[in-house]
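Sharing in case it's useful to others searching the archive later.

Someone asked me privately for the predicted structure of Histidine biosynthesis bifunctional protein HisB, so I'm posting the question and my answer publicly. Question first, with the sequence:
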Amino acid sequence: MNQKILFIDRDGTIIKEPKINSQVDHFNKLYFEKNVIQALLSFKNNGFHLVMITNQDGLGTDKFPKIDFDGPHNLMLQVLISQGVIFDDILICPHTIKDNCSCRKPKTKLVEKWLINDIIDKDNSYVIGDRLTDVQLAYNMNIKSIRYGEEGKNWDEISQYLNKYKRHAIIKRTTKETEVSVEVWLDLVDQSNINTGIGFFDHMLEQIAIHGGFCMNIDVKGDLHIDDHHTIEDTGIVLGQVLLKALGNKIGIGRFGFVLPMDGCLANCVLDISGRPYIDFKAKFNYQYIGNLSTEMIEHFFNSLSYGMMSAIHLKSEGTNDHHLIESLFKSFGRSLRQAIRLEDNTIPSSKGII
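And my answer, the predicted structure tokens:
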């Protein structure tokens, strides 16, 4: 399975680079960049793997004895480890530019083992550093880059960008009855593309995305020549699963959410992304179909969604117009979901420490 990996420069990015000789060769030269530890920890919590990659000019020579490097470097690592930040790998080029080696950034010799084994999730991996050589390294690795420092972003901005705007997941499920593909971007507001073969159902699923404040692509091929049961059921299951997957470890989410009035009806949705499936559904419909959607499948959809998402959903609506009644249920769920998935801090909203 491909991994989200951050290849992070050391001097000038994790720790400050001294103006005198640019070498951290003594303990009194060791200073961390502002908010770097909090950012690195948040990346670990959000599923990123960390790799340190650094050029250390002349390391091991009389100009830069290894013993001078090791003391501050090891102390830096001890501090990071004490805070829960552990690097999967530490890659050091000890050469100078004049050596014309194959491992000095932006050349890729140091990261070769990561490239040849096809480990990297190239859509979600980055090189982070303060120099143009870091940007060039990312280009040579065919991944993205983030420039740090005066010419780029600070650690708070990088943390917000990588953690808040990258909650994405895709799940595909094939059975003898349906082929379902659902992809969601929880922090991207954009046009959703939805095609289940059931027009009114597509319209309702779009309401979840619009009022949930995210976008999704849903493509379903089901046995509609029989009826709409399997298509709606399996869409609910996979949508729930992909929302759960996109939420990741759920650190910082609001977890709960509620309520929506609409023409001629009042809908109430109370949601808890609890890790425990439960559904309490209350709504009565006057007709068997709205468009080509059978109304008895509305409850079944939310039941499937609850189990796929491992969440408790209390959903009810009262009214006389079936179209508005159903729409209010989907809109209120979307609004409730919007509150529940919103990132508020860096903690898990549970006394158990896990949800």
